[in-house]
Each structure stands twice: as C-alpha cells, then as structure tokens.
Write a structure and sequence with these properties.
421 residues; UDP-n-acetylglucosamine1-carboxyvinyl-transferase, Chain; 2 domains; 4-stranded mixed β-sheet; 13 helices
Length: 421
C-alpha cells in the first residue's frame, strides 16, 4: 500500500493554488443526471471521489469527456439506468446524492448504501424524511435504498429538517428540481457548496431561491438544458494549507479562494498567532512566532467546520497553554486521529465531545495511520511540523479529497514523497 514519507521541520513558503471544492463537485456531478444536454463543468478537482463518480455515471450510460485538465463534459441524456453499480457506490460517501438525482430524473431509484470515511455512521434519516414528503415510497435495508412513487405521485412539499443536514438538503434539492409544484426546505444547511449546487442547477434552468439561508425554495420545472459552470474553490483544502502554515511556520499566498467562505477558519488561526492578509481571491498567511491556545467548537456553516477539526487540533498541540476543541457534529471524530497524534508526542485528553489539548514544545516523527480524509490531512500537517521522519499510511483516504497534495506541498518547500510499496 502507498504511504507518505515526510521529513519535518521545514517552514512552508511560496504560493499554492486551491482546487475546486470536493463537496461541491460530488453534488454537481450527480446533478448532471437531471440535465438534457451537455454540461461543461470547470474547476473540477482530480481526486478519487470524482473519478469514482464519473465511473458510476459512465457505467449508467453517460457520455463523459475531459478535454483539458480540470474540465469534465458530461451528457446524461441517454442514461436509462436507475440502479447504479453497487460496487462503486459503496466506495464513497457522497454517492447517496444519486438517490435524489435519480428520483428526480426517473421518479424511482435503487441505490446501494454508500461507503467512504468511517469516523461516523452518518444516518440518512433526514434524506428519507425528505423523499417521503415528496411523495416517494421508501424501502430501506442494510444494503440499499429503493424509491418509487406513491399512489398520489411525486409532488412538491414543505419539509422541515430536524437538523441542518448538508446531505439531506442536497438530496431534496436534487429530487425537487424536476418534481411538479413548489418544495420548501426549512432549517436547510447553508454551506457554500449548497449555494454552488443551486447556482449550477439554476444555470441549467432550475428555479431555486434561498440557497445559503435557512429556507430554500425549489419550483419544479419540466426540464434542464446543458450549459457551462465553474465549481467554487475548496474551502477545506484552503483551510488545510493554512493550518499547515500555522503549525509548521512560514509565509504562503493561498490563491483561488473566496475569503468570505474562509472567515470561520481564519479568525481562529489569527487567534492562535497567524497573520492573515485578505485579497480579492487570495489569502496570505504568515506564522513566525509562537502559537497561543484557543477554544473551538465546530458548528454548521458559517460556524467553524467539522471538516477542519482535526487540522486545527494539530495547531493546538503545538500552542502554548491549554486549548479546548468541542465537536458538535460528529462526536466520534476524535478517535480517528488523536491516538496517532499522541504517538507523535501530543498531549490530548478526550472527555465526551470535548478534547483538551495541552501544548507541547514539539512533535516527533512516527508511523501513523489515516482513518479518514480529514484525519489523514491532519497527520500530514503533524508530519510537516514534527522533528524527524513521519510515515502516513492508508493515504487512499487522503487522496479522496486533496488534489496533487505532494506536488503542492513540495512546491512550498516541504520534504514529502509518496512511496508505492
């Protein structure tokens, strides 16, 4: 199995360009199933989750081309299949978006339950609640979800989510786009990739308003037509590189970002001692002095993202004093990486939903194992900041969400290489 070898202790300097948002791409690609015609999607990250999704769509009958790097042209007009390949579906979490897209396209779907990162079960009860409200009958087993129209047929409805679920908001938006009537999602998720999905669908002819607020309204249309759309920059990838500079030190210009999306992250890194300079589409981050302790609680957007929890924990591990990190979205997320950081010298104590992190002078290289995507990114950051050599194993998790990670870090002065055993 491949792994990363990292010789730590080198500050990061230079410029890094952020790729398109993973979380937007894995929603927009299934949305192409709703479109009659060719979608040209730009700023698509070259990551394993995207490659799996395009393979799923290809096997369903979509015509897919990549005329240049970062661009995918996809035409799903001839797709007739409402049951995607189960082997591929179980390899990634976001494949559950095929449920909403296929329900909207065909009025039915039969989709295996997804795989992906293993830090939490992530139940789909809110997705099911939405499908039922839209007039679908749902047959859910431990292996699959099957959707068919009820006797009264599919129709728009008002749906109040019990929690601001990103996945449920996306799935309901996808299903409702071609369903007759108006659908209103209350307590909707507000993350940037929710807005990006709505903008993509509207570009193709959908009628969606309110994305990015608590209430999203979808007026069903008869059809969508092809067009061109560019995916937003990846908020979490940008935050990961900023956390790496905060932990390892240095001076890096992070290009192709939307600074407004980054405020929930940059504010905490500033509290810890990083200097932040915002530009129109870039952020410069500088860290030369010692880090200070802070307190972080993860929350839905615009709060501090759960997907940055592990990365900021590495910064806390190297900060003076005692920091506290509370996880309010996926409380089991600590167990995927805290033990690994402790093997590198970190001082972390977990009590329920809160990790108490007592800063240490330095971390030391060790062989560690990535348990999920963001935990793996955190271990890479720890290796960059540590004294000695770190080996990060199970890097297939990391490569689900970070494009050209080794190449980008090497360009910033990191000593990192990918070893293929």
């Amino acid at each position: 199995m491949a792994r990363y070898e990292i010789n730590g202790g080198h500050p990061l300097n230079g410029t890094v360009t952020i790729s398109g948002a993973k979380n937007a791409a894995v929603a927009i690609l299934p949305a192409a199933l709703l479109v009659s015609g060719t979608c040209r999607i730009e700023n698509v990250p070259n990551i394993s989750d995207v490659r799996i999704l395009t393979s799923i769509l290809d096997r369903m009958g979509a015509k897919i081309a990549s005329p240049e790097e970062g661009v995918i042209e996809i035409d799903c007009s001839e797709v007739q299949c409402s049951e995607p390949d189960a082997t591929l579906v179980t390899r990634m979490r976001a494949s559950y978006y095929l449920m909403g897209a296929l329900l909207g396209r065909f009025g039915k779907a039969h989709v295996a339950l997804p795989g992906g990162c293993n830090f939490a079960s992530r139940p789909i009860d809110q997705h099911i609640k939405g499908f039922l409200a839209l007039g679908a009958e749902v047959d859910e087993t431990e292996q699959y979800v099957s959707l068919i129209p009820s006797e009264e047929g599919l129709h728009g409805n008002r749906i109040s989510l019990d929690m601001a679920s990103v996945g449920a908001t996306v799935n309901i938006m996808l299903a409702a786009t071609l369903i007759p009537g108006q659908t209103i999602i209350e307590n909707a998720a507000k993350e940037p990739h929710i807005v990006d999905l709505a903008n993509f669908l509207n570009t193709m002819g959908a009628r969606i308003t309110g994305a990015g607020t608590d209430t999203v309204k979808i007026r069903g249309v008869n059809s969508l037509k092809g067009g061109t759309y560019a995916i937003i920059p990846d908020q979490i990838e940008a935050g990961t590189y900023m956390a790496a500079v905060t932990a390892a030190g240095g001076n890096v210009l992070v290009q192709n970002v939307i600074p407004k999306h980054m405020e929930c992250i940059t504010s905490k890194l500033q509290e810890m001692g990083a200097k932040i300079i915002n530009y129109d589409d870039a952020i410069r981050i500088i860290r030369t002095g010692k880090l200070r302790q802070t307190t972080v609680k993860t929350r839905p957007y615009p709060g501090f993202p759960t997907d940055m929890q592990a990365q900021v924990c590495v910064c806390m591990a190297l900060a003076g004093g005692v920091s506290r990190l509370t996880e309010s979205v996926y409380e089991t997320r600590f167990f995927g990486y805290c033990t690994e950081l402790e093997s590198m010298g970190a001082n972390i104590r977990i009590n329920g939903k809160t990790a108490t992190v007592t800063g240490v002078e330095r971390l030391y290289g060790a062989t560690v194992c990535a348990h999920d995507l963001r935990a793996g990114a955190a271990l890479v950051i720890a290796g960059l900041a540590a004294e000695g050599t770190t080996y990060v194993e199970h890097i297939h998790f990391i490569e689900r969400g970070y494009e050209h990670l080794v190449r980008k870090l090497t360009a910033l002065g990191a000593d990192i290489r990918r070893l293929d055993d």
